[in-house]
Amino acid sequence: MSKLTAKKVENALPRKKEYKLHDGDGLFLRIRPSGAKSWLFSFSLPNDSTLIRMTLGSVKNISLKEARAKLPELHSQVSQGIDPRHARAAKQAENISAITMQKLFSDWIEFVKLAGEITLTWIKRHEDRWRLHLRKKLGNLFAKDVTRTHLASALDTMARKGIKEETRKALTTLNLMLDYGLTRHSIESNPARMLKPKDFAASANRSRDRVLNLSELRMLWQTLDRTIYLKTKKEFSSAMNPVITTAIKLLILTGARRTEVAAMRWDELSENGIWLLPTDRTKNKQSHTIYLSQIAINLINDLKKLTGQSEFVFENGKGHIHPDSLTSTINRLIKVPNDPKTMRRASTAPLADMKLFSVHDIRRSAATAWGEYLKVKPHVIEQMLNHQPLNKLVAIYQRATYAEEQKAAWLAWGEMVEHQIAHDPNNIIPIRKSALANS
Predict the structure, then answer these.
(1) Residue 190, domain extent
(2) Measuring CA to CA, which of 183, 281, 318, 405 is 20 to 30 A from 288?
(3) Does the CA dihedral 53-55-56-62 come out positive or negative?
(4) How far is Cα 161 from Cα 163, in angstroms, rounded to an integer?
(5) pLDDT tens digit sequence for 83-102
(6) Which of 81, 97, 113 is the endpoint of a domain?
């Protein structure tokens, strides 16, 4: 009997009664009176002469070539005494219980929120990373079927965009969510564990040591204050968003993290110049008190007419400003190149002549200035930065906060910023050393 061809399958016409065309090796084409065509597999299990037929699928969904390709596995199951119908049912049940990578990510995010082990800020970063870079390639795949090839493809796409740091962090996100799936028996192994950042040229950056000196901080502050003449309104106006510029100035004045400043709330501020950060707003989940200098208080009060009706000090119309807005503003001022292959910087950028720096370098610069110019003791600076002691015994038994020393340092730094950074340094007013005598 000759085998079927694609042409014969296509031209097989319906009859009054159902009939079958044999292709060989147990494969049949079934043609119903309605014209519907489907593939059948005919078999008998070992030590049982009963003839069994199972439907493989419609011709519309499975071609002749694809139907033939299924036969080796089916015959293998039969030879082992396995009924292919039962194996298929088990596979379907497994797929029904299987979850997609999107579901796994959502379940993991819900878990970490309930566990409270990381801040909402870090959770948001994982969510953004998944949404922007990983979901499109991985979201619809069954988690149990995901391989290193799938993950590497998604990370390679990120690496080609030149976002080295985000690529490295995306691998961390994948490892964490897949480890969660492993403990929940949603997957049998974590393929991300076999991948390393260096595989995507995304190894961790070396620890930065960029510190802006007073002159550079002055240049930054003056650039933030720069005004332009608006011909249409015939008036001078700030060249930059006052909400953003004030937030960057607060970074200088407080040494706080960009995420902490960006989401500053009016109800975190007291009338006596204290900014109290609750535990859910800090990186180490330890509440933190920052004593605002007079210049910082004045800057914040100036925003009340713009954002005073909002819950956030740095409101952007949809909530608080995104921390990345501070980073992108700094990048525009110094013109960090978008193309990593061409490190040229536009000469028109306001701070094009300044050595590259990041938002986090501002925090480091403030902390360095506290020690170098104000002679604040290191342990006090660590408290001002809300750093946890590296020594676990110190963390457990040493509970001193040095509140008065911290307050004196912040107020003295505010004076120094006002007279040597915000204004002409030729009109310097000496810092009160007595305020820091006990720090």
Answers:
(1) 101-200
(2) 318
(3) positive
(4) 6
(5) 888 888 767 666 555 789 99
(6) 97
